[in-house]
Amino acid sequence: MAFLGARARCSAAAAAKVAQRRRLAEDARGPPSPPGSQRAVLYVHWPYCEKRCSYCNFNKYIPRGVDEAAVRRCLVTEAQTLLRLSGVRRVESVFFGGGTPSLASPHTVAAVLEAVAQATHLPADSEVTLEANPTSAPGSRLAAFKAAGVNRLSVGLQSLDDTELQLLGRTHSASDALQTLAEARRLFPGRVSVDLMLGLPAQQVGPWLGQLRELLRHCDDHVSLYQLSLERGTALFTQVQQGTLPAPDPELAAEMYQEGRAVLREAGFRQYEVSNFARNGALSTHNWTYWQCGQYLGVGPGAHGRFVPQGAGSHTREARIQTLEPDNWMKEVMLFGHGTRKRVPLGELELLEEVLAMGLRTDVGITHQHWQQFEPPLTLWDVFGTSREVKMLLEQGLLLLDHRGLRCSWEGLAVLDSLLLDLLSQLQDTWWQRTPSPGPGG
Amino acid sequence: MWSLAGLGWRRGRALATPATRAARRGLLGPRPTLACPTATGCRDPGRRYSSAGRKEKIDMSRFPVENIRNFSIIAHVDHGKSTLADRLLELTGTIDKTKNNKQVLDKLQVERERGITVKAQTASLFYNWEGKQYLLNLIDTPGHVDFSYEVSRSLSACQGVLLVVDANEGIQAQTVANFFLAFEAQLSVIPVINKIDLKNADPERVEKQIEKVFDISSDECIKISAKLGTNVESVLQAVIKRIPSPKAHQKNPLRALVFDSTFDQYRGVIANVALFDGAVSKGDKIVSAHTQKTYEVNEVGVLNPNEQPTHKLYAGQVGYLIAGMKDVSEAQIGDTLYLHKQPVEPMPGFKSAKPMVFAGMYPVDQSEYNNLKSAVEKLTLNDSSVTVHRDNSLALGAGWRLGFLGLLHMEVFNQRLEQEYNASVILTTPTVPYKAVLSSTKLIKEYREKEIIIINPAQFPDKSKVVEYLEPVVLGTIITPDEYIGKIMMLCQARRAVQKNMMFIDQNRVMLKYLFPLNEIVVDFYDSLKSLSSGYASFDYEDAGYQTAELVKMDILLNGNIVEELVTVVHKDKAHTVGKAICERLKDSLPRQLFEIAIQAAVGSKIIARETVKAYRKNVLAKCYGGDITRKMKLLKRQAEGKKKLRKVGNVEVPKDAFIKVLRTQSDK
């Protein structure tokens, strides 16, 4: 009964509605078992880019004569195979990521969506997101993607400063980005997201906040703020190592993040995750599923998935990775129907660790109900209620544990990775201390 | 016959690296491949052949006292002591004359690398001259005053020395230190100017230096090239002509000086002895004057340079003796051995080794503790001068507090651990043994002494309970080209040194003498001196007792809590500098935490240095979607695991690395 309040509050958000529906459905089915439900979301990876961005270490390739029809056939085949293997009946969202999926033809997007709809139930209002790069997405093309079934756009704007865009190796200018953004909003009103980066080398707080304010004049209901992380193997990393670029200042990045969060809050945005902000309930249900540890299938080179291969009779969730390199991946798909390269069964504790680490990234955190779905015999109170370390974090005002559940405070969210070290240790200790119980949820 | 044992020497050749100078400068020198698994292993091959009775036992009675000469070679590092020894061994047929004889007497890898002698080696040379058969005992000495006590014991078995000086480099600090040890022992000194074949050799100038510094006429200098063998024969003849035979009496009861001892895992302790009176043979019952323990002699013999058993050893002779001693501490250097029930007056000057430099030693990984323990035990079997106390650091785990004779001794010990036992260790910044003269009657009662030695800073008594504190001092000798004098004087002043003497040893070389507080030279003095003189200045020091010092105990605090591992005793004038350096080092190595960390150095209640580590303002992965989860979880779990091992000081978590960075021996430049 204590949970009613939480549920009511959550229902304001579209994502929470989905979660609630899922919960109700599971309740009807009997003992809830999210690790192996019959629902999942689908991620489709398009591995090609026009150009390498200086900060990106993702699995992407600069294409040389890509046979798109062949890639399309493989994406469709792999989606069909994995859907069958998972035994999933309902796909709640699809996300086309990359790479630069806006470089793919709308026909490819349509073919994948069609295959999903044929194999399972893909409700008409399911979120279908496409990542779009400003230069590769003129208005006409965006309209074609819409016709193919895309209903949400994530625009990789990154910066409104042309010098910064150059530093990042982007092919677009700030005005290109704003134009794309305007067209996207016209086509997908209320369902456009923009990315803005912070913490770039030599970037200062004031000008960056100026960019954010400028962006607020143009943006829709969803903004993601990403702090640049220098990744090994990128051009930016090398330049900083060699000293041709100053190393990003973590102090300044922290300040930008804090100020940025405040500005967005004032503008009516809810920070529903560490880097994600939405107003008017425009949360990404697809990404929400990751943080709620729902099932997801990954299709395409190097895509990750986490699901129970129920179609193969299994009851254990697996972490899966598809073959990275596109040509090899295609060969495998053609030979075996899928390019799954690695399958790692997730133990019960491992799954709980993910529930904890992912769930705390959200503003709702981990509700008692959510936790109970994964671990009925052990409540959040059992695990964290008596820990000295947790008590200190609560006293410092970084963490909250109450009738709703466990979540970060505003300040705590910014240092979550520090909090998680104590919380994960505490979870592990409790897990190993308790006598192994062959309970129904075990 | 000797070619068999020569196998060992050939291996030695492969190890003689030219990088001796670099290696000598510090622990960080190039690390050569492990040549032999154990120290004793290195020494075994020759020993096995020599004692297997392949040679007929030598009748030592053929050598009356007047045909015996006992001498040492003393020299600065790299001036050619070992090469000269090789030539002398070849000339007398002790070893085959091959190109492979390089530093035959330096058996340890570290000795060949650093061009120093750690363990003295001895060889008996048989030499025919003018129709007489001579027995010339070359008694090798450790080449550094860290081992000055051992040097002085080696010298006390001699009547003369060859003082080898490089014709190019001239007199160096160690030449001076060694000369005075020989001079004080009233030995005949034969100056030998070596390396006259070098392009820049200037033997005349060196002759003048010798005349000026040692007051030895230039006529007495022998100019040689040990490398080419030039004039080496005249060195042997000078030994016979200029060094007196030992004053020894065969008729008297046995009186033998132990001047070195080594440990052999199969035969126990092998004591090197010089007989001043009497004779000794297998089966004799002998007594150690120091321990009063009785032993039965199993074997006696001479060293040439491996053990060669003989029937007997006679007064005036030098050789070895095996008598069932299990531990080198039973055959301490300087001890006197005599026949059971025939006690004699022990040789004067015996003292137990006195450690002057202490350092903590810990395994890098605690799981290596037992391996390291056994390595330390094996090494100390051969070196009783290292003192070992078990120690336990909250941060670094179980380890030891080791006492060494000096800095080089410490470095050599560490290098041998690494090279011969493949052990990786954390060596903490060395400290010196301070003393406190107590005023508190309660404390005096507790310690049962008025003057106590403070090895561990935790024992440092409060100022209100002492009359005064004392610190060890050394008399340092620096020889340098005059252009560096200014810089060197500034360096010495910064090290609280007091100048005692300054003298030009030739037109542009100066010898400086300074009284140094020992703790001022234990960390990086030698490196600083070398670098500011482009490598030209040399330094050596000798023990000079204790002096009053204004010492204080300095605490390091993290958010107000004392870090026990980091308590240090410092001179009042140095507290600020040292405290600041420690705080800065901690600041660089302490990870940010969820709150601000104040790092403070304090003397009593007074804060003398402070640094701040700011709190984390942002520590969260920006992008965490489907593909990022595995990597993120792995990273988080590894960090959580690491965090469990952190030591907590109050609420501050301190990684082991931070302690290592602060405690480990390092330069402050």
UniProtKB/TrEMBL annotation, chain A:
<dbReference type="GO" id="GO:0004109">
    <property type="term" value="F:coproporphyrinogen oxidase activity"/>
</dbReference>
<dbReference type="Pfam" id="PF04055">
    <property type="entry name" value="Radical_SAM"/>
</dbReference>
<dbReference type="InterPro" id="IPR004559">
    <property type="entry name" value="HemW-like"/>
</dbReference>
<dbReference type="Pfam" id="PF06969">
    <property type="entry name" value="HemN_C"/>
</dbReference>
<dbReference type="GO" id="GO:0046872">
    <property type="term" value="F:metal ion binding"/>
</dbReference>
<feature type="domain" description="Radical SAM core">
    <location>
        <begin position="34"/>
        <end position="270"/>
    </location>
</feature>
<dbReference type="GO" id="GO:0006779">
    <property type="term" value="P:porphyrin-containing compound biosynthetic process"/>
</dbReference>
<comment type="function">
    <text>May be a heme chaperone, appears to bind heme. Homologous bacterial proteins do not have oxygen-independent coproporphyrinogen-III oxidase activity. Binds 1 [4Fe-4S] cluster. The cluster is coordinated with 3 cysteines and an exchangeable S-adenosyl-L-methionine.</text>
</comment>
<keyword id="KW-0949">S-adenosyl-L-methionine</keyword>
<keyword id="KW-0496">Mitochondrion</keyword>
<dbReference type="InterPro" id="IPR013785">
    <property type="entry name" value="Aldolase_TIM"/>
</dbReference>
<dbReference type="InterPro" id="IPR034505">
    <property type="entry name" value="Coproporphyrinogen-III_oxidase"/>
</dbReference>
<comment type="similarity">
    <text>Belongs to the anaerobic coproporphyrinogen-III oxidase family. HemW subfamily.</text>
</comment>
<keyword id="KW-0143">Chaperone</keyword>
<keyword id="KW-0411">Iron-sulfur</keyword>
<keyword id="KW-0349">Heme</keyword>
<dbReference type="GO" id="GO:0005739">
    <property type="term" value="C:mitochondrion"/>
</dbReference>
<keyword id="KW-0004">4Fe-4S</keyword>
<keyword id="KW-0479">Metal-binding</keyword>
<protein>
    <recommendedName>
        <fullName>Radical S-adenosyl methionine domain-containing protein</fullName>
    </recommendedName>
</protein>
<dbReference type="InterPro" id="IPR006638">
    <property type="entry name" value="Elp3/MiaA/NifB-like_rSAM"/>
</dbReference>
<dbReference type="InterPro" id="IPR007197">
    <property type="entry name" value="rSAM"/>
</dbReference>
From TrEMBL, chain B:
<feature type="domain" description="Tr-type G">
    <location>
        <begin position="66"/>
        <end position="247"/>
    </location>
</feature>
<dbReference type="Pfam" id="PF00679">
    <property type="entry name" value="EFG_C"/>
</dbReference>
<dbReference type="InterPro" id="IPR035647">
    <property type="entry name" value="EFG_III/V"/>
</dbReference>
<dbReference type="GO" id="GO:0005743">
    <property type="term" value="C:mitochondrial inner membrane"/>
</dbReference>
<dbReference type="InterPro" id="IPR004161">
    <property type="entry name" value="EFTu-like_2"/>
</dbReference>
<dbReference type="GO" id="GO:0005525">
    <property type="term" value="F:GTP binding"/>
</dbReference>
<dbReference type="InterPro" id="IPR009000">
    <property type="entry name" value="Transl_B-barrel_sf"/>
</dbReference>
<feature type="binding site">
    <location>
        <begin position="194"/>
        <end position="197"/>
    </location>
    <ligand>
        <name>GTP</name>
    </ligand>
</feature>
<keyword id="KW-0648">Protein biosynthesis</keyword>
<keyword id="KW-0547">Nucleotide-binding</keyword>
<dbReference type="Pfam" id="PF00009">
    <property type="entry name" value="GTP_EFTU"/>
</dbReference>
<dbReference type="InterPro" id="IPR031157">
    <property type="entry name" value="G_TR_CS"/>
</dbReference>
<dbReference type="InterPro" id="IPR000640">
    <property type="entry name" value="EFG_V-like"/>
</dbReference>
<dbReference type="InterPro" id="IPR027417">
    <property type="entry name" value="P-loop_NTPase"/>
</dbReference>
<protein>
    <submittedName>
        <fullName>Translation factor GUF1, mitochondrial</fullName>
    </submittedName>
</protein>
<dbReference type="InterPro" id="IPR038363">
    <property type="entry name" value="LepA_C_sf"/>
</dbReference>
<dbReference type="InterPro" id="IPR005225">
    <property type="entry name" value="Small_GTP-bd"/>
</dbReference>
<keyword id="KW-0999">Mitochondrion inner membrane</keyword>
<feature type="binding site">
    <location>
        <begin position="75"/>
        <end position="82"/>
    </location>
    <ligand>
        <name>GTP</name>
    </ligand>
</feature>
<dbReference type="InterPro" id="IPR013842">
    <property type="entry name" value="LepA_CTD"/>
</dbReference>
<keyword id="KW-0496">Mitochondrion</keyword>
<dbReference type="GO" id="GO:0045727">
    <property type="term" value="P:positive regulation of translation"/>
</dbReference>
